[in-house]
Design a protein that fits this description.
The chain is of the alpha+beta class. It is built from 20 helices and 28 strands. The protein has a seven-stranded mixed sheet with strand order 9-10-7-18-15-16-17, with helices on both faces. Strands 12-22-21-20-13 form a five-stranded mixed sheet, sandwiched between helices. Strands 23-24-25-28 form a four-stranded mixed sheet. Helix 19 (633-652) crosses helix 20 (701-716). It starts with 6 loop residues before the first helix and ends in a 12-residue tail after the last helix.
């Protein structure tokens, strides 16, 4: 049993100390293990006969344990299908259950922690869950062979029924469960040949959570009601970096239902018997803010500085320097040709998840429990442990459904989670405290996609193709506050530009990034760096193509062939065919194409656009995607649709501005989002592939904005140098 450290024992402990301590106490970090590997370290006693990813009930129902949160993306269906395929389980009797927070068992390959992000749920679990399903199937097969005195090779399984055709015998999983549970799982179970799949890749793989979310039985954090539970709201400073100077809680405590008012590191918390009382109590608070360290700059001033620095003007901030992220050839040597220059500006963006941040915490007597939609349980355990003084592994987390995230629920500080734990610690006695953030809290006190500027200077040859490419990016790093700070370039700032086929096809490349330290909290936002790099690369290429008098699709084909980008070429050809690129667009409409790779997936889109009252309207988007094996084609299409609408919403309207350091947009009346009536018709075509699955949750998002910009370029000859499209 893990020892729980007292506050005295943990004083001065670093984040790394706690991580290492948890690892040493809890055992080796196990990722990508076979069922046999996991059982060999005692998981059989902890998780049951079939390991930590599968439970089979007495009725034969198969429960797949998902280490990944479900917050709207539909991954539970795909994860369950991987197990069901290898196990040959009856798909109608397969259900999904959220895994407990145990990093040593459920850590993500590549991430090193248990969590969901980077469009990795399916790709990360592909081999792991196949092995789990195949291992469990082997146990049933061996049990049947022993029972019927038949060769293992003659036993077959279909829809949770084990059969031996020669002697006409069969038994269900339920009937064989006692014997199968005693079989040692194989160390290296034999996996199916993908050509024999009967479930994966079919339209039978549909969401497992639709019914619960339709009838209201699905449990979200706001649904949590526990005995004697309190509700808290926090008053945050109007400017980032400000702290509480003083506060007067007299009037707040007079509000009926208010129980107590506490100062916490991030503000002042009002704790009440219900949400309304907490809100009214917060409104009655009088807080004086110490703004000595507050950010007071306006976003336009920041953007102007970015433009100056990219142009080689002005004075760079202290301890800030340009860093190369891709170089090729001799950039100092003059290259003959025609020069093309352009710049692009991208605003701060809010994640704007449908469900604002919230959490339920209980702290007391050396215990801590969190109940909420935890995106990165390991990080939330770590930050909770630091606050309450215990080992991370001793922090219990019950992960619920969450209403969207787009990256917001996963940050190094566990910001809103830490607030809830701080409050629950003050309340004590394991009394439940539900922290509720309003939409305004999340918009004005949360994290943003960074403000970003790109400057591009390209020399093209007589055929119009790039022979030198100079690129400058100015944006904040997303790794500030990381327990493992990035040395050198933060790859998230340049992904999509770095490694681009267009740079591979260009003989001379000089690409650098500047990462100023701005006191505005920024975070990964759906598709992360690709949300600006895809626009820059794809809209620039379209401008080059048109200046060269070449068709944008044909121009890209030449560059892809030169770069050896076969996957890009394949999706480009597919989308051009399906969109009817070679045929004229309807009167008043134009088409734009864009192609981009992110999270291992290549997506091509053709957007059909017209101008209505001077503003772009997108009517149809044809999408081609190479995502490896498509476990659920229906869900891949849904993710493309959702990603396109999310990206289009930001491209048309998304913009967070700060005036004197204060966020000006606080709700959907000032932060406009796409309406249902504005959503385009989306057609998705999946490129057949025998490769392992890659991500689909994010790759559809960054492609739509440049596709629309390229359609506008074709329509009126005007390039787009800043987003959103709709100004004002």
């Amino acid at each position: 049993m893990n020892k729980i450290l007292s506050p005295r024992e943990t004083q001065g402990a670093t984040r790394r100390d706690l991580v290492v301590g948890a690892t040493l106490v809890g055992g080796a970090l196990l990722v990508g293990c076979s069922p046999g590997d996991l059982l060999s370290v005692g998981a059989k006693d902890d998780f049951g006969a079939f390991g930590p990813f599968i439970k089979i009930g007495a009725d034969g129902a198969v429960t797949v344990i998902s280490k990944h949160i479900e917050f709207g993306q539909g991954n539970h269906a795909g994860l369950a299908a991987i197990v069901a395929e290898e196990l040959d389980a009856d798909w109608t009797k397969v259900i999904v259950e959220q895994a407990p927070a145990i990093a040593k068992v459920y850590a993500n390959t590549g991430m090193g922690v248990q969590g969901t992000g980077g469009s990795s749920a399916i790709s990360n679990s592909w081999t792991q869950l196949r092995q789990a399903g195949a291992g469990a199937k082997a146990m049933f097969v061996e049990a049947a062979a022993n029972k019927w005195n038949a060769p293992v090779g003659e036993i077959t399984v279909k829809d949770s029924v084990v059969s031996h055709a020669k002697n006409g015998r069969s038994a269900t999983f339920a009937q064989l469960l006692p014997e199968a549970g005693k079989i040692a799982p194989p160390k290296a179970p034999v996996l199916k040949d993908p050509k024999t799949f009967t479930l994966i890749g079919t339209d039978r793989v549909r969401r497992k959570d639709s019914q619960a979310k339709s009838d209201g039985t699905a449990r979200f954090t706001q649904d949590v009601q526990l005995p004697d539970m309190l509700v808290a709201m926090v008053a945050h400073a109007p400017r980032y970096g400000a702290k509480v100077g003083s506060f007067d809680a007299t009037e707040a405590k007079r509000v009926a239902g208010v129980v107590e008012v506490y100062q916490i590191p991030t503000g002042v918390a009002v704790v009440a018997q219900n949400t309304w009382a907490a809100r009214k109590g917060r409104e009655a608070l009088k807080v004086t803010w110490d703004e000595a360290g507050a950010e007071k700059a306006s976003s336009e001033t920041m953007a102007a500085n970015y433009r100056q620095w990219a142009a080689g003007k002005g004075t760079l901030p202290e301890k800030t320097e340009w860093q190369a992220f891709e170089t090729k050839g001799d950039a100092a040597k003059k290259v003959n040709g025609t020069i093309f220059e352009t710049t692009y500006d991208f605003p701060f963006l809010s994640h704007a998840a449908m469900e604002p941040m919230n959490c339920v915490a209980q702290v007391g007597a050396g215990k801590a429990k969190l109940t909420f939609g935890s995106q990165i349980p390991t990080v939330d355990q770590l930050n909770t442990a630091k606050i309450v003084g215990m080992l991370p592994g001793a922090v219990e987390i019950e992960t619920l459904f969450a209403g969207g995230s787009f990256g917001r629920r996963a940050n190094f500080q566990s910001d809103y989670v830490a607030e809830c734990v701080e409050i629950a610690k003050k309340v004590g006695k394991m009394r439940p405290v539900k922290l509720v953030w309003t939409r305004e809290d999340d918009m004005a006190a949360g994290y943003f996609r960074p403000l970003t500027h790109h400057a591009v200077k390209i020399t093209v040859d007589k055929e119009g193709y790039p022979v030198s490419w100079r690129h400058r990016v100015v944006t904040q790093t997303l790794m500030k506050g990381s327990p493992m700070p990035t040395k050198g370039v933060d790859e998230t700032t340049v992904e999509g530009t770095k490694g681009s086929p267009y740079l591979k096809a260009t003989p001379v490349v000089d690409a650098q990034v500047l990462m100023p330290d701005v006191n505005i909290p920024v975070l990964w936002w759906r598709a992360v760096g690709a949300t600006h790099t895809a626009f820059v690369m794809e809209h620039t290429i379209d401008q080059l193509a048109r200046k060269a008098g070449k068709d944008p699709v044909a121009y890209r084909r030449t560059l892809y062939e030169k770069a050896g980008a076969t996957r890009h070429l394949a999706v480009l050809n597919l989308v051009a065919e399906k969109a009817g690129w070679d045929k004229p667009a309807s009167a008043g409409w134009s088409r734009g194409v864009a192609v981009h790779e992110s999270f291992g997936t290549v997506v091509a889109q053709v957007a059909e656009v017209q101008l209505v009252d001077g503003q772009p309207k997108v009517g149809r988007v044809v999408t081609a995607v190479d995502c490896g094996t498509a476990i659920s084609p229906d869900q891949v299409a849904a993710q493309m649709e959702g990603g396109i609408c999310y990206g289009l919403s930001a491209a048309l309207y998304g913009k967070v501005t700060l005036k004197d350091g204060v966020v000006e947009q606080t709700n959907f009346d000032t932060y406009r989002v796409l309406r249902n009536s504005e959503a385009p018709t989306v057609e998705t075509h999946i490129l057949p592939s025998g490769n392992a699955p890659s991500g689909v949750g994010e790759p559809g998002t960054p492609v739509i904005a440049p596709a629309v910009a390229n359609a506008l370029l074709a329509l009126n000859g005007q390039a787009t140098t800043s987003l959103p499209f709709v100004k004002g």
